[in-house]
UniProtKB/TrEMBL annotation:
NodB homology domain: residues covered: 55-235
Cited SUPFAM superfamilies: Glycoside hydrolase/deacetylase (SSF88713)
Protein name from the UniProt record: Polysaccharide deacetylase family sporulation protein PdaB
Cellular component, GO annotation: membrane
GO molecular function, one term: hydrolase activity, acting on carbon-nitrogen (but not peptide) bonds
PANTHER family registered for this protein in UniProt: GLYCOSYL TRANSFERASE-RELATED, POLYSACCHARIDE DEACETYLASE PDAB-RELATED
Gene Ontology BP, a term: carbohydrate metabolic process
Amino acid sequence: MFWIVNARRLKQYLIILTAALFAIGIAWAERDNISIFTSGKNGPNAIYKVDTREKKLALTFDISWGEERVGPILDILEQKGVKKATFFLSSPWSKSHPDIVKRIKDMGFEIGSHGHKYTNYSSLNDEEIQAEITKAHEILKELTGTPPNLIRTPNGDFDKRVLKIADKMGYTVVQWDTDSKDWLNPGTEQIIKNVVDSAHPGDIILMHASDSCKQTHLALPAIIEQLRSKGYEFVTVSELIANAKINTNEVQ
């Protein structure tokens, strides 16, 4: 009887201990700003960040329209000596602004695709998805001389079909882990805070260089300075992928 009672207590203790360890694990992950992404067992996935202890991260800029904001952003990157960043360009915008595309390329920045029509790919059928990616691919390849292999889909929208089609076409779908929310125009200080407070090793940071984002170029100098003061090095998305374990988010 004594042994049975103690066995029951031991079982209770083990259950309590397991629950406590689980809670500690969650708290530790939250403390270190770690997002847990499952890669899934079948098919490709979108990349949000990479696992690395090195203080490297990627500044990324989406452009789909306008020409007033991108110039100042490129000027700031040049003035601050930022030689590596990734620009996701929509092909209609690129075709209308070949001189700006050339400047981005000549500055040595990585260029990825932001698609052709600005529409949610998950709402398209398979043939339409392939056609959209192909149109953008051909235009960007013609303008830059280099075929892109990274794509950030319009609105960041995708499903498993999009991932599989993109993968078959030689593309990796890239999302982000830190959103500057510059597209909301919340104020320069808030944009700086959104980025600097959330940035972490292996991070992919979302910003925009379209004209609708009126405060990005005002926030960018402080973002660069404060991240550097924390010891961060700026690299391209491709460099992050090549040098670290990928974190992905499984699509249901």
